[in-house]
Design brief:
Elements: H1 30-33, H2 36-43, E1 52-62, E2 65-72, E3 80-88, E4 95-104, H3 106-109, H4 117-120, H5 123-138, H6 151-156
Antiparallel strand pairs: 1-2, 2-3, 3-4
Length: about 190
């Protein structure tokens, strides 16, 4: 008779694969979580104080590693957050800054919800279009003398050979006095 393994015994826990870190996150280190002013001062090292808003929170990144997040008031970065990653050695009160920077939040990455064009147009938008159309109908004011040329524009009206711009030597371009204005080809 063969004995079958007992189905009720639990299988041993799988071992973590080599090279894959095991992250232990949980309650932030009390000393680091209380170091809000230290983290703010570190961020002020890379940004003016007026661009750093209120403290948004602190999250644990592991043993004695905490990330502090601050609101960004930097123009063009609405919804972004300044961050300071700080750490300390075991049984030490000396805090070290690991990393500083600016990160997008979920709100700053996503585009606003799409609204159909017909719903986006407001009555004042239509009034702006009508006033633009009225200006286009009037056209630019042109005098009877034709466009005025400045001193520099007179040279632009003729090319290097003295021919009038637009003359390409076609018989239809010949002057009415019967002279030939075409270039001679060697």
């Amino acid at each position: 008779m063969t004995s079958q393994p007992d189905q009720s015994t639990p299988k041993p826990a799988s071992k973590p694969r080599a090279g894959v870190p095991v992250w232990r996150t949980g309650k932030p280190d009390a000393v680091l979580a209380a170091a809000v002013d230290f983290a703010r001062a570190a961020v002020e090292g890379i940004a003016p104080a007026e661009q750093i808003g209120q403290h948004l929170g602190a999250k644990s990144e592991g043993d004695r590693v905490v990330t502090h997040l601050f609101e960004s008031r930097l123009a063009g970065y609405q919804g972004w957050q300044w961050y300071a990653v700080i750490t300390r050695n075991s049984r030490s009160k000396v805090i070290t800054v690991n990393e500083l920077g600016l990160l997008p939040s979920e709100d700053s990455i996503l585009a606003p919800e799409w609204v159909p064009w017909a719903e986006r147009v407001r009555p004042e938008d239509a009034q702006d279009d009508e006033s633009d159309a009225d200006m286009m109908d009037a056209g630019p004011a042109v005098s009877d003398a034709g466009p005025a040329l400045s001193d520099g524009d007179e040279d632009a009206a003729s090319d290097d050979d003295g021919e009038v711009a637009g003359s390409n030597g076609d018989p239809g371009d010949a002057p009415e006095d019967g002279t030939d204005s075409a270039r001679e080809v060697d």
